[in-house]
Amino acid sequence: MSAQREMKEKNPWHTPVTIIITVIGVIAIVALVTVAVLQNRPVPQKYKYGIVLDAGSSHTALYIYAWPAEKDNNTGRVQQTHSCKVKGKGISSYASEPLKAGESLKLCMQEAEQKVPRKRHHQTPLYLGATAGMRLLNMENSKASEKVFQAVGAALQKFPFSYQGARILSGQEEGAFGWVTVNYLDDRLKQGLETIGALDLGGASTQISFVSDNYDGSESPSNSVTFRLYGNDYNLYTHSFLCYGKDQVLRLALAHQTQSGPTTILDPCFHPGYTETKNYSVLYDSPCVSDRKPLEDPVTFIHNGQGNFQQCQEVVKSVFNFTTCKYSQCSFNGVFQPHLQGPFGAFSAYYFVMNFLNLTDTSIPLETVKEKLTSYCATPWKEIVKQHPNVKLSYLAEYCFSGTYIITLLTEGYNFTSKSYSDIKFIKKIKGSDAGWTLGYMLNLTNMIPAEAPDTPPLPHAGYVSIVTVMALLLFILFIVSLRPLWPSCSKQPQIV
Ligand SMILES: Nc1ncnc2c1ncn2[C@@H]1O[C@H](COP(=O)(O)OP(=O)(O)O)[C@@H](O)[C@H]1O
Ligand SMILES: [Ca+2]
């Protein structure tokens, strides 16, 4: 009996000190794991916002972008959360009534006030960038363009956002930021992957931007833009052709057909049966064509459609100048262009037009595309209107011309071949964000793409929590094992013997 009592007294599990140590050990480990998990638990995501207004020649669009409030520097994280199409025409069309340019933006701005959380309003940067429409107005009448900017600026400052100014983008910026946008959205920059070229077709200008291995910027330096993004160097070729957006090219084509000031023209780029009376002074009211206005013209001319793709292509070719090139190679109008390289994303009016014509699939051979255009252009206007009752007539009348221009620009202008045509993808959006210059513009102005690759944490959150938990468990087991000599079974051994 006395031996048994002695054993019981010697059993360490029964001493208050051991019990206290064990309890403290368990509490400490539980606390450690809890702190590790809580500390690293992803907090409910907060977002930052940015707003960019794209004041194009034909219309203005507002884009809202959002990104997690932390980790601004991570690629692929900024996303478009909302867009709003401003009613009416582009701001450059308000040259004679500038206040209306400001007023036109109100509805979309009010929508932005609803979409961006109130708490974030004051720290949300707001930018307006104007493109070729304002470039042309500025060339034609710089005072009028200033007044439009004043009115637009005054209207935008009435909203609670952090207004960062309104300005005209250079053609180079427009091309380069479009390229940044598509490559950013496609996650090509951070990973240092081969980049995608960008083709942007507007109403008043068109841009081509791509990286070519045999272009280092020494030939025609004005076409070169260099970037260092995420630790990678890029030497981008970019060019913007002012007056080669599809609306201004239509003017150029009509100017070509009205050189002698006729009262009627038979236009192969419009459907048979299409007939409209047009005003000479309206047609020639643009710096792209104003110097070609016939000296003696009637007030109006009758614009009749003929619907002939091949002849339309001849008219369109006449707006390009292929005769002079002082460089090793040119696209058109004496503009240097290196060898085309890599895949291309074609957006804005490229997409609208090719999508309407059911021609976005570039695995369709170029010859077939031309056959389809031939038959589309030859379709009588009455039938076209009947087939598309919901499409705006002004757009509908021009798809034959625009489709012909796109194919001619790509093949004759930029030298895409039957083979390289299939490298083009007609796109509207990438991962939910519109392709266009606006996102690249904002990323640049908010310094959201670092020059050097950001330091990545050695362990992701889940890895960190797992390792801490495993370590804690190991410590606990080690602690228990270290008490082994004092385990009851060990101390009972003498009894067995
Ligand atoms: N649904 C559509 N169908 C055809 N063309 C369209 C459609 N939506 C927009 N567009 C055209 O896209 C072009 C957009 O150009 P825009 O960005 O306004 O000009 P720029 O970039 O030259 O300043 C315009 O020619 C406009 O008419
Ligand atoms: Ca545009």
Automatic annotation (TrEMBL):
GO terms for cellular component: caveola. Its cofactor is Ca(2+); Mg(2+). GO terms for biological process: nucleoside diphosphate catabolic process. The active site is at E174 (proton acceptor). It is an enzyme of class 3 (hydrolase). The keyword Glycosyltransferase does not apply. It is found in: Membrane, Caveola; Membrane. The chain crosses the membrane at residues 12-38, 462-483. Its EC number is 3.6.1.5. It holds the Pfam family GDA1_CD39. The keyword GTP-binding does not apply. ATP binds at G203, A204, S205, T206, Q207. One of its GO terms (molecular function) is GDP phosphatase activity. It is a multi-pass membrane protein. Keywords: ATP-binding, Calcium, Disulfide bond, Glycoprotein, Hydrolase, Magnesium, Membrane, Nucleotide-binding, Transmembrane, Transmembrane helix. Belongs to the GDA1/CD39 NTPase family. Catalyzes the hydrolysis of both di- and triphosphate nucleotides (NDPs and NTPs) and hydrolyze NTPs to nucleotide monophosphates (NMPs) in two distinct successive phosphate-releasing steps, with NDPs as intermediates and participates in the regulation of extracellular levels of nucleotides. By hydrolyzing proinflammatory ATP and platelet-activating ADP to AMP, it blocks platelet aggregation and supports blood flow. This is Ectonucleoside triphosphate diphosphohydrolase 1. The gene is entpd1.
